[in-house]
Design goal:
357 residues, alpha/beta, Rossmann fold, 2 domains, 6-stranded parallel sheet, 6-stranded mixed sheet, 15 strands, 34% helix, 19% strand, membrane
C-alpha cells in the first residue's frame, strides 16, 4: 500500500487532505484565538493544535505523520499557519501537562495528543476542561470530550515480518522498539508472527531503546544486530530509528557488497535509506495518523465531533499497510497473499509477543 484513503473517521475511515504548520519549542507555540470547540464554525474561525511526543514533528515517523495531516487540513481550507493550526513541541514527558494547558489557555478549538504517552496528562487536563475537545492517538480515554483513535499496527507489522522473511539472506533479522508499551508490543508481536509464518527457523533479535528520541541508542543497537549477523532491522522507535538508518547507511557506504536493510515505520521512510550506492529501505509500514488528524479536524469544525468514541482501524479499512519499497516481486506477492488472509479473517494477528507461537 503506497497511500491510504479511508472514508470518514467515526463512520468508517478517513478522507484525504494536507496542511501548513506552526511550531513550538520546549512547550512554546504560536497561538490561535477562537471560542472553545463546539458547534459549526467557519474554517477561518476554527483552530487546531497538536501536542507532540518527544520525537517532534521532524522525526520522520509518527509525529511527522500527524503534523503532515494537520498541514493537509490547513491547505484544504486555505488556512493560516500559526493562527488556525499549530503544534507545541514536547522535549520531555514532564512538558505534556503544561503544553496541554497552554493549548487550552490559547483557546484552540481542538487539541490533539500525539501518542500513548500523553494519556495520563490529557486525561487530567480533559477532566478539568470539560467544554474543550481533545483527541488522543494510540490510546483510549473514556471521557465525553475526548475522541480516541487506535490503529491495528500489528497487522502492518505482520506484513513487514513476511517481507523480511522473504528477503533475508542470513536467516537473521532484528526488531528495535522505542519504549516498551502496549502499542509497541503490537508492532513486535506482528513482526515476529509474520517472520515465523514464512520461516519459523529465522532468528529474530529484539531490543528496546527505552526512548523514542535517542538516535544514538538506535545506532548502537543497530550496530550490534548487524555485527551479529542480522541483515534486516525493523524499527518502531520514532526519532530513535534515525540512528538505525544512520548506522545502516554508514555500513553500506563502507561495504556496499554486504547488503543490509532497514524497514521504516509510520511513514514511507524511503528517503532515509538513501546512501552513495543506492537505497537500503526495504519497505515501510504505514499508519494513517495524518488522515485521522485531517478528518477529525473537519468533523469537529462541522460540529460533529465524536467525543466519547473510540475507533480502531487496520488493513480492512486501508488505514495501515506496507510500501512496495525495494521488495522483490516474490516478496510483494507473498505480502499480498498474507494481507488478503488477514482481511478475510483467515489469520488473526497477535497483539502481544507472548501470543506468538
Amino acid at each position: 500500500m503506497e497511500k491510504r484513503h479511508v472514508k470518514s473517521l467515526l463512520t468508517l475511515g478517513f478522507t484525504s487532505g494536507l496542511v501548513l504548520a506552526a511550531c513550538g519549542n520546549g512547550g512554546g507555540s504560536d497561538t490561535a484565538g477562537s471560542d472553545a470547540a463546539s458547534g459549526d464554525k467557519a474554517a477561518k474561525d476554527f483552530s487546531v493544535v497538536m501536542v507532540t511526543d518527544v520525537g517532534g514533528v521532524d522525526d520522520g515517523s509518527f509525529n511527522e505523520s500527524a503534523w503532515n495531516g494537520m498541514k493537509e487540513w490547513g491547505k484544504e481550507h486555505n488556512l493560516e499557519q500559526n493562527k488556525n493550526f499549530a503544534y507545541i513541541q514536547s522535549n520531555e514527558d514532564s512538558q505534556f501537562v503544561p503544553n496541554l494547558n497552554q493549548a487550552v489557555n490559547n483557546n484552540f478549538d481542538l487539541i490533539y495528543g500525539i501518542g500513548f504517552k500523553l494519556k495520563p496528562a490529557m486525561e487530567d487536563v480533559a477532566k478539568a476542561n470539560t467544554d474543550q475537545h481533545f483527541v488522543i492517538i494510540d490510546e483510549v480515554i473514556e471521557l465525553d470530550n475526548v475522541a480516541s483513535v487506535l490503529f491495528k499496527d500489528h497487522e502492518a507489522a505482520y506484513l513487514a515480518g513476511v517481507a523480511a522473511a522473504e528477503t533475508t539472506e542470513t536467516d537473521h533479522v532484528g526488531f528495535i522498539g522505542g519504549q516498551e508499551s502496549d502499542v509497541i508490543d503490537r508492532f513486535e508481536a506482528g513482526f515476529l508472527a509474520g517472520v515465523k509464518a514464512v520461516n519459523p527457523d529465522i532468528k529474530v533479535d529484539v531490543e528496546y531503546a527505552g526512548s523514542f528520541g535517542d538516535a544514538a541508542k538506535g545506532r548502537q543497537l543497530a550496530a550490534a544486530m548487524y555485527t551479529n549477523g542480522a541483515d534486516i532491522i525493523y524499527h518502531a522507535s520514532g526519532d530513535t530509528g534515525n540512528g538505525v538508518f544512520s548506522e545502516a547507511r554508514d555500513r553500506m557506504n563502507a561495504n556496499p557488497d554486504d547488503k543490509i536493510w532497514v524497514i521504516g515505520v509510520d511513514l514511507d521512510q524511503q528517503a532515509e535509506g538513501e546512501y552513495d550506492g543506492g537505497n537500503l529501505t526495504l519497505t515501510s509500514t504505514l499508519k494513517g495518523v495524518g488522515e485521522a488528524v485531517q478528518d477529525l479536524s473537519n468533523e469537529a469544525m462541522e460540529g460533529t465531533f465524536p467525543g466519547g468514541k473510540t475507533t480502531n482501524f487496520g488493513l480492512a479499512e486501508d488505514a495501515v499497510g506496507l510500501t512496495d519499497g525495494n521488495l522483490s516481486d516474490d516478496a510483494k506477492a507473498k505480502v499480498q497473499e498474507y494481507k488478503q488472509k488477514i482481511i478475510d479473517g483467515e489469520i488473526e494477528v497477535p497483539t502481544h509477543p507472548d501470543e506468538v507461537k
